[in-house]
Amino acid sequence: MSNPLGPSYASIDGVEISELDLLRYEVKRARIASLLLHEKLGAAGMAALLADEIATMERIEHEWAERSAGRWAASITDIRVHGGSAEGFLLWFRGRMAADDRAVMINAHPEHYAISREPDGRVSVLETIGGWTLPALIYVRFSQDEREAVAPLDPALPVRLIGDVLSKDGALRGRVLHQFGDTPDGFRGRLGIYWPAEAEPDMIKGHRWHLACEFVNWTRAYVESLSASGAAPVR
Q: What domains, with CATH codes, occur in the chain?
């Protein structure tokens, strides 16, 4: 009979460790190890370490934008959250960004190399977008001006994050439209990042997974913060 745990497995005190439990342990310890390195290096140190990769990715992004001539292609992911509310989550999320809570920002995705709030209010993000081969240093500016929305707004999702993805010199590299609305047991969201239409198709598709990973982790942290504060986890 084949082993349901896989070709290799471990046990402690005679109890077999499931593959899922081992994966959870691995992710937890990887986050702790990664955060220590991020704290030691800092955002500037991480950018210096990856300077060559960032420079190459900047050239690629420029070429995508030039060929696209203002046309966009979307990475869209939907999420559902049990607990909290759309307004509550966005308030919590803005608070974590304003506080420059790098632990919350970095732990949301293993390819978040650095996220920090700039003096001018923009958020600098050093990450690998869409599982692409190179990390990119991008800057996100949230305007919340519905007139700047890149796509039609959904009236059922009235809580929104609207903004632009910029290069270091301020050139437009993408658009942001995240929309959220309440449900009977929490809230749901439609997450959208719009990239130059001529960007690599696999990157555009892959960023849907990136959005799923980071926002599931962020919304989970938000709901857990409600429990920790004594607030009702469900509206």
A: 16-229 (3.30.530.20)
